[in-house]
Amino acid sequence: MLFEDLDIAEPLQRALTKEGYANPTPIQAEAIPHLLRGEDLLGIAQTGTGKTAAFVLPVLQRISEERRRTVPGAPRALVLAPTRELAAQIDESFGTYGQFLQFSHAAVFGGVSQEPQVKALSRGVEALVATPGRLLDLMEQGHIDLKGIEFFVLDEADRMLDMGFAKDVHRIVSALPKKRHSLFFAATMSREIGELAGRLLKDPVRVEVAPQATPVESIEQRIFFVDQKEKNPLLIGLLQQKFLKRVLVFTRTKRRADRVAKVLTRSGIRADAIHGDRTQNQRLAALRGFKAGRLQVLVATDIAARGIDVEDISHVINYDLPNEPESYVHRIGRTGRAGRAGTAYSFCSAEERSFLRDIERLTRTKIREVEHRYHSEEAKNASGAASEPAPGGSKRPPRRARGAAPSPQRSRRPGPRR
């Protein structure tokens, strides 16, 4: 299928062609026709499937078909995203796909001064992308009026709930007009997600394009058994190979992300870290450098990586294995996007061996071992107490009974592609 088969307007087709997109991904092919007809939609899709374009393109087209004078602080479309980085990237997508339209858009999120955001709102925008906290602040200050919203998109709804935004979402929704077109996207489907969708959507079409908690088939997965003290030289040796061009490295802690980035920089590898203790400007600068190719490596924690939507990531490297197997699926989904080939390398020390067993059990995949100069038989064969983190380390959360509600700390999925 081609994008031109989806009745997409010529200016949008031109933008897609310019950006090198000819074929829609499955979520785009299934969702766009329903959205152009004005149907509410519940979309379930893994990260990297192209769900951002699946809602940005129809919103751009439908607003451009019925132009109106923009009113300061009164957008026609609202996209709610859980993280600053994701909000910024969705806003960028409106600019990319709407580059041949006279279309105004803006993003509002915390961590930076609100003054430029207020100025943009005062000029009037047709589409607003926002995180819940900053949006509520600006609403309370009288800078935003949501009574004229025609299109409401709740993106990464499962992340929104995991991060404790349920009450904020309900407050925002209560300020929206009852007559609106609502779109709801999540990477996983749970009882809580179903209940929220039931309250927000009217007779929705459900589109689900990938099995839940299944790694993208195009991703080549490899495991390196290594002692903790040898992880740095192993990582440096891998990154010095030319085919590792744009690499996302995951650590379990913010402190370790900083340490790894510094070690790489001292070794002549262009790297930076992104995590919650860095300022928003530092995080955006690191992300821009990574996207532009000025950085070969971005070292991230799971939470900070939720909004990272960068194409052509050649490799994901798990410097630390996550203590929840679902997070492994989220991480490796950052490469091999939209059918492209991708590679995920994971380092496993003795105290992480039980994490690897959980990952292989969830994914129903035996990850192939790589022979290397730092190989550790101790790590490979660890069992019992030796395969668990030491007390005070990164412990796994307690297992919950079947049917019990998930813990607030439990991590689900990160973010979409274009």
How would you characterize this protein structure?
A motif (Q motif) lies at residues 1-29. One of its GO terms (cellular component) is cytosol. Residues 382-395 have a biased composition (Low complexity). There is one protein chain. This protein is of the alpha/beta class and 418 residues long. It folds into two domains: 3-208, 3-Layer(aba) Sandwich (Rossmann fold), CATH 3.40.50.300; 219-387, P-loop containing nucleotide triphosphate hydrolases (Rossmann fold, 3-Layer(aba) Sandwich). Helix content is 36%, strand content 15%. The protein has 15 helices and 14 strands. It has helices spanning 10-18, 26-36, 51-65, 84-97, 115-123, 132-140, 157-162, 166-174, 191-200, 231-239, 254-266, 280-292, 325-332, 353-363, 377-381; strands at residues 41-44, 77-80, 105-108, 127-130, 151-154, 181-186, 205-208, 219-225, 247-250, 271-274, 297-300, 315-318, 342-348, 368-369. It has a seven-stranded parallel β-sheet with strand order 3-4-2-5-6-1-7, sandwiched between helices. Helix 12 (280-292) links the parallel strand 10 and strand 11 (297-300). Helix 2 (26-36) runs parallel beside helix 3, helix 3 (51-65) packs across helix 4 and helix 13 (325-332) packs across helix 14 (353-363). The protein is elongated, with a radius of gyration of 22 Å. Residues 392-418 have low confidence and may be disordered.
